[in-house]
Amino acid sequence: MRFGVVFFVLGYLVLSIGITMMVPLVVALIYGDGDAKAFVFSVSITLLVGAALLIAFRHRKGEIRGKEGYMIVTASWVVMSIFGALPFIVSGAIPNSVDAVFESMSGFTTTGASILTDIESLPHGVLFWRSMTHWIGGMGIIVLTVAVLPFLGVGGMSLAKAELPGPVTDKLTPRMVETARILWGVYILLSVVEAILLLLGGMNLFDSVCHTFGTMATGGFSTRNQSMGAFESPFLQYVVVVFMFLAGTNFTLHFYALRGRIGSFWRSPEFRFYFVATGVVTLMIMAELVFAREKPAELAFREASFQTVSIITTTGYATADYCLWSALSQFLLLSLMFMGGMAGSTAGGLKVMRIQLLLQHVRLEMRKLLHPHAILRVRLGGRLVPDSITSMVLSFIMIYFLLLFAGTMIMTALGMDLVSGGTAVIACVSNIGPGLGNVGPTENFSEVNQWGKAVLTFMMLLGRLELYTVLVVFSRGYWRA
Amino acid sequence: MRFGVVFFVLGYLVLSIGITMMVPLVVALIYGDGDAKAFVFSVSITLLVGAALLIAFRHRKGEIRGKEGYMIVTASWVVMSIFGALPFIVSGAIPNSVDAVFESMSGFTTTGASILTDIESLPHGVLFWRSMTHWIGGMGIIVLTVAVLPFLGVGGMSLAKAELPGPVTDKLTPRMVETARILWGVYILLSVVEAILLLLGGMNLFDSVCHTFGTMATGGFSTRNQSMGAFESPFLQYVVVVFMFLAGTNFTLHFYALRGRIGSFWRSPEFRFYFVATGVVTLMIMAELVFAREKPAELAFREASFQTVSIITTTGYATADYCLWSALSQFLLLSLMFMGGMAGSTAGGLKVMRIQLLLQHVRLEMRKLLHPHAILRVRLGGRLVPDSITSMVLSFIMIYFLLLFAGTMIMTALGMDLVSGGTAVIACVSNIGPGLGNVGPTENFSEVNQWGKAVLTFMMLLGRLELYTVLVVFSRGYWRA
């Protein structure tokens, strides 16, 4: 491992964070809530550190090799979260640094779990930066899962490697840059369209932009204490539903669609599964709301679709209290939470593709019992899946559950009850946001103790970076030889 | 599939059930509670049906081939449960037939879930039969997992195929019979020793025998409303702890130990894991009871070890209300519940060996990331595990969770709340007995509706027969060609 190379790349990253932090500085200056000074200070520190790293390690610039990739990716999110927490601490919005890093990590990992109790009391600059961390994190995640991780041999998208947009070359870097550029273009385009629609629907510019950040990153931070529930306009709610759904879709499919190949959506077996799962659960919940709770059809459809899409995409916005719905509806939502959105989107969770592979694998094992000598292989949408990928996906699911297990053990040891502790871990590993019990949708993470917050911060990082990326860096083998 | 062969084997089974049912008939005659007539009727019907099947299909006798094995095993437990329910229905102890089959299936699968609210009001013959179904089921399970399933290519014991006691031949049947005879010998011996110890400890003969049935089968049916909590003698409780632990151990190890090879226990990596897991959790809970709840050390150790062993072996007896313990202790017990005891024992759950293979597999996948070109294989206790076995074990764990998922969905759709519905399914699939909430240790399954009971009855069957055996019979492929 050449640490110089790592530090050089991180220098770039820190510098970029410093530059993006100028946007909330402008917001702070416009609104004049008194947080501008904190941003000037944070921007200065961040730019200085970034520049210092770049200068100190300028001779270490070079191609990134296998092992270093894991370190750079993991360190990126840690570094972003630490520098991203500066405005929270310096402005006094979140004076405790563990809390501030939790909030910042929750932003950059697009989790949306918060330790804040009164969001509306915060200055506009801080609120804007809080939402913006989502958007930056979402940007990072798309490129990471679609372009970077497959080359490290990790992540659900390894499968789709051959399908990536951008010119195919043997060189790793040029192709990654090209892919990143294309996907960011799609991401920015969709964001602009959503923000305009929200403006047209009657939101002010500030709220439009902040909620666009939260939606496109499937994050869930809002500018209101009541989250999206503060906006009662059906049009606004439907706009958010549609864009959450799009944000939970593989961004390469959007790219193809923009190129005129709309059919790409339906040709993707993963998209079909994602679409049908969302549709079926929405209709089942709508049926409950109409027949058992006598709501008008439109309202029932709106509430059902909003909550379903918000949860399958792991966004975490809410317009209705689903804790009051039937056990079956709650259970269906909980299951969607575990699944999450498509690989190559900003959504968290296990990802639809992994669930599909899992189901295929199980079907195959059953058939093997009946035909012990047949040679059976896992297929997805007609394409053969290499055994090594199936094996890795199964391990991923196992590690995911082992992590939930270990995390819940720690949280209960730190004094949380089983439901709150367990769902806090799930909400963080799957980058959802709210859990149940003391960390439920109408509560927040402020009452979790400091050690618990630190553990959950790490869980968000693990979940967001597809487990392996982080775990490898923490393995003994990584540091040997 | 030759149904004639299947019916012929089932004829034998029904006849055997009829004969064993004569034991509770004798008990009923001794106590004279008025249930003797019900047993005379049940025994007659059962013997008649058994004889009729044997005679009708006497020409169909023949070697059992691959596919037929699955059908025979699945049908065996169904048939046992139906005929086993007769005494409950006819005596009027459980007039509803869905309830009676639930109770009977719970007995034969050694689950221990009950729909009865006042156990002590039942006549002695019925109570004895209820406990005896455990013992018969346990006997069936040992032979099934150690001798039958490995030859069908199913179950955690496939691994240990080469280690089975009994002469090694190429013929399937002679070896199975020999293995069965040896294991039953061990099972009966341990049962006799436990019953004598319980008698010496002051239990009456009836309770000694019934609790021996419940212990050795890791079932959990008791003759008292307070379960084992009705017996306050430390000696009695320790005897039950020791024998529950032994019943959760692979019976082939007992066989070797009886032959003087005591070291076999510790040489088994599965036993070491089982022993250490039990020990660590016991000590952790004991520490809580001593330091946080100020109980005397002996009582703390007794309560901790009893509850821990009862849960890891999926027996379900209780001497303390663990719902009052800390969240961490409850979580540890919940985890042991999922794991269960050793393969080749009467315990339920996923089995220790599967958890070990899972952990090995995950470790390996992590190492593969760092050494993409290394050839790494799963090992257990130094022995290489074939990929096909690892793959099947992973699928098993996946199917197990998918089943919990599907079962919980059905139970919530039938109107149960999430915690009660979810834990009812876990308790039945893992053959534990009590769940939490409305089906918790101080409650029972009487309030579950009829459809729910039917589903849970099926879940017990699935869990007990290692999922695959039953699922294969219900697959489309099984009936094709």
SSE blueprint and pairings:
The structure is a homodimer of 481-residue chains.
Chain A: H1 3-20, H2 22-31, H3 36-56, H4 66-90, H5 97-108, H6 124-152, H7 172-200, H8 205-216, H9 234-247, H10 251-258, H11 264-267, H12 269-292, H13 297-312, H14 327-339, H15 352-370, E1 379-380, E2 383-384, H16 387-413, H17 418-429, H18 450-464, H19 468-473, H20 476-479
Antiparallel strand pairs in A: 1-2
Helix pairs in contact in A: 1-3, 1-4, 2-3, 2-6, 3-4, 4-5, 4-6, 5-6, 5-18, 6-7, 6-8, 7-8, 7-9, 7-10, 8-9, 9-13, 12-13, 12-14, 13-14, 15-16, 16-17, 16-18, 17-18
Please provide a brief summary of the model.
With 481 residues, chain A is an all-alpha fold. The first copy, chain A, contains 20 helices and 2 strands. The first copy, chain A, is globular, with a radius of gyration of 22 Å.
Describe the model:
Two copies of one chain form a homodimer. The longest helix of chain A is centred in the N-terminal third of the chain and has 29 residues, at 124-152. In chain A, strand 1 (379-380) and strand 2 form a beta hairpin. Mean pLDDT of chain A is 87; it is low at 155-172. The first copy, chain A, contains 20 helices and two strands. Chain A is mostly helical and 481 residues long. Chain A has helices spanning 3-20, 22-31, 36-56, 66-90, 97-108, 124-152, 172-200, 205-216, 234-247, 251-258, 264-267, 269-292, 297-312, 327-339, 352-370, 387-413, 418-429, 450-464, 468-473, 476-479; strands spanning 379-380, 383-384. In chain A, helix 2 (22-31) runs antiparallel to helix 6 (124-152), helix 3 (36-56) runs antiparallel to helix 4 and helix 9 packs parallel to helix 13. The first copy, chain A, starts with a helix and ends with a helix. The first copy, chain A, has a two-stranded antiparallel sheet. Chains A and B meet through helix 14, helix 15, helix 16, helix 17 and helix 19 of A and helix 14, helix 15, helix 16, helix 17 and helix 19 of B.
